[in-house]
Structure of Protein N-lysine methyltransferase METTL21A:
Amino acid sequence: MALVPYDENVLPALSKIHSSSAEFHFASHRLRLAQDWNRLGVAAVVWDAAVVLCMYLELGHVDLKGRAVIELGAGTGLVGIVAALLGATVTITDRKPALEFLSANVRENIPPDLRGAVQVSELTWGEGLQRYPSGSYDLVLGADIVYLEETFPALLQTLEHLSSEKTEVLLSCRIRYERDERFLRMLGKLFSVQEVHYDEQRDIRIYRAVRIKTKPEL
């Protein structure tokens, strides 16, 4: 999903996003992710926040083996793919227009013996959430999904639905505007939020959020 408006003439340094593919090495695997800016725009580009989150996962800050993971707004699928390679059972989600592209990247980069541990699924935030068991995920992942203010209520609703008090939410993002800070304040009303990592070179922060325990009714 989008993170910044893009004008190739104004921002030539971002011309790499027009490359048809991007290559990485994570979890002892060489990954080649197709990109297609012209057809799908920002949903089909590997952004820095995804790379930083993959690096964070690979360093073992989160135990992924055997855990149930869901990625939101997956785009190219890099984060979910890396989580699966590190031992998680992963549901990789995005909106319907991105699914064919996303599925192709998953098929290309997940070894046959691990494909049973990965599912690609349609999820528009705030819609059809009953298809996803409430609070049943150990880990919710999102890279550069905090940027459009009009999506904040639906994103918060989705995070709340997917999470129990034992669920960890990891959001990797670049804080650019006041609205980004506003989202973190909104998130903080439902979750305990802390910054757990900062990549200074890429100016990317990773936030960990856990549902605030609700007091039992008397």
